[in-house]
Amino acid sequence: MDKKMRKSGIEKDKELSEVNVRLQILQKVTEAVHSTLNLENVFKQITDGFVHSMGYTTAFIAPLSKEKNHFEVKALSTKKRLLPKINKILGFSLHKFSFPTDPELCAGIRTVLEDRVMVAKTLVEVAYPFVSKKACSILQQLG
C-alpha cells in the first residue's frame, strides 16, 4: 500500500512538472506575440469593429497616460466619414484629444477608472465638460 501511494505521488509530481513546463512555454510564446503587435493597429481594429460590426456611430480607445494623470485617444473610428466634420465642429482633431483623470468631472471617467467599459447614449455623458454641451448637441445631431 505504501509503495502504491509513493508511486502515485511521484506520477502526480511528474504530471505537475510537465504542466508547468507547458505553461512556461505558453507564457514565452505569448510574450513573443505581444512584443510583435502594433498596439495602434490592434486598437484601430477594435474601434472599427465596434463601428462597422456592432453599429455604433463612434468608438474610441483612450488609455491612461504613462503619468496616469490624463487619458489619450489612441484609436478612433466613426461612421460615414464623420471624423472631418467632428474635427471641424470641435476646432481640433480628436486624434490628439486628451482629458484629465479627475473623477469629479464626470461619471464617465469614474466608470473608466473603475475598469469598466463605458457605453453611452449621448455624447454629453462622455465628453462634457471637456467639450461644451452646445458642441455635444451639434455632434449628437450630426451622428
Polypeptide structure, described:
The strands form 2 sheets. Strands 1-3 form a two-stranded antiparallel sheet. The protein has a two-stranded antiparallel ribbon with strand order 2-4. The protein starts with a helix and ends with a helix. It has helices spanning 2-36, 39-53, 82-90, 107-113, 123-127, 133-142; strands at 58-61, 70-72, 75-78, 98-100. Helix 3 (82-90) runs antiparallel to helix 6. The longest helix has 35 residues, at 2-36. The protein is mostly helical and 143 residues long.
Termini separation? 75 Å
Low-pLDDT residue intervals, each spanning 5 or more residues: none
Shape: elongated
Number of helical segments with 4 or more residues:
6
Residue-averaged pLDDT: 79
> How are helices and strands ordered from N to C?
HHEEEHEHHH
β-strand amount? 5-15%
Number of strands: 4
Secondary structure category: mainly alpha
- Biggest β-sheet, characterized? 2 strands, antiparallel
Helix % is 55-70%
Q: What topology, given as strand order, has the largest sheet?
A: 1-3
Gyration radius, in Å: 24 Å
Question: Which keywords apply here?
Answer:
two-stranded antiparallel ribbon, 6 helices, single chain, 143 residues, 4 strands, mainly alpha, elongated
Summarize it.
With 143 residues, the chain is mainly alpha-helical.
SSE inventory with pairings:
Blueprint: H1 2-36, H2 39-53, E1 58-61, E2 70-72, E3 75-78, H3 82-90, E4 98-100, H4 107-113, H5 123-127, H6 133-142
Antiparallel strand pairs: 1-3, 2-4
Helix pairs in contact: 3-6
